[in-house]
Write a structure and sequence with these properties.
The structure holds 2 protein chains of 2 kinds. Chain A is of the alpha/beta class. Chain A has 10 helices and 16 strands. Chain B has one domain (3-62): Alpha-Beta Plaits, CATH 3.30.70.20. By secondary structure, chain B is α+β, with helices and mostly antiparallel strands. The chains are: A alpha/beta, B alpha+beta.
Amino acid sequence: MDDRYDVIVVGAGPAGSTAARFAALGGARVLLLEKDREVGIPVRCAEGIGDEGLRSVLEPRERWIAARIDAAELVAPDGTRVRLSYPSAGYVLHRKIFDYDLAQMAAEAGVEVRTKAYVHGLLWEDGRVAGVRVLHLGEDRAIRAQIVIGADGVESRVGRWAGLNTVTSMHDMEACVQVTASRVEVEPNVCYFYFGKEVAPGGYAWVFPKGDGVANIGLGVSGDYSGRKKPIAYLRQFLAERFPKASILTWVAGGVPCAPTLKEIVADGVMLVGDAAHQANPISGGGIATALIAGKICGRVAAEAIRDGDVSKKRLAQYAKEWHKAEGKTHERFYRIKEGVYRLSDEDLNRTAHMLAQLPPEEITITRVFRTALFREPRLLLEVAKVFVG
Amino acid sequence: MNRIVIREGVCDLCGTCVGVCPVDCMELTETRLQIDADRCILCEMCVEICPVDALELCDGRSV
């Protein structure tokens, strides 16, 4: 580890490793810092990703795939089930292997990777960010860089240190808990989503199969409903009622910002990416695909800015602009739809499910689901139509 | 003095509380969560959002 790089990336999740890789491919000298002992551990994720999102940045490798998914089953509060079938819809990943491989791909591109490297502050020079302070192997070091990329997750501090407002509102924060369990009797190629105030208010519960009877079972509760009954209590109840035979292997907690992208994701010499920039899909909470897409843009723009010798906020704003062009608009529409869907009562959800359950299976599409759910709110219906139709 | 206390061993170091803290007084190191009591305004958002009930407001007199 030297004292000076072009780009330092804080956090080696999918967003950080991808940003680091593309910055290096663009010719920059890049250092990737991860606070945990190993890249990919612990896994704070349900591990689902759509085929299209993954392929937009990477060719899927067999070793990443725990299960291939070709249907989603939505379960209404009264138990009515609605199935949406999509051939090759997506995957449940082994994030441990996936994240590790992404970091390895970054290393192959020339990125220097350091784990157990805890960044605890920024370096400043003439009022501009000039690098990071990092604790590594018992040593507190100052390492300089022209650009610092914050890929430091939901708890992001790089952005706050740089003066960007990164706070997630209680309303938009989904407090999640998940177990990975064996002896889960579900279909191996179907992802299950359970809705209802009793199951997960302001969120949903999920069951994502990982093969051999193993599955990720978890749920998220909106900060609006936080209080005495904690997500972990909801999950215990969900497991006891629906999967009493499940045998728990691991459990994990985490927060997902189901929010619009931050107003500002760049500053002079600073870029934010992934959960740190609030780029996860606000409806599903899925953030892997958007992290890859944003990471690729972020890394490329960082390298270009270094080449031009201009790392000002104005120059780096090209990343924000390209993100908004690629995903940002869809993301903002998803957020508006989320706001509509989450206002629905359990009765609304049941009625929607009953209507959909009468349709022939081939006519049930995600557009149809949202359209049916929101049929009393024409303004939102228009938004949905824009997302899915044109 | 009142303060937020962390129930060690219950905290999963997930960072959800850090994400909602309005005054940036919480910090996640690689091994623990730290709260800067000088900056904390005792708003209890972290207590509310914690998925696993690892934080609580403690009345200073009873500690």
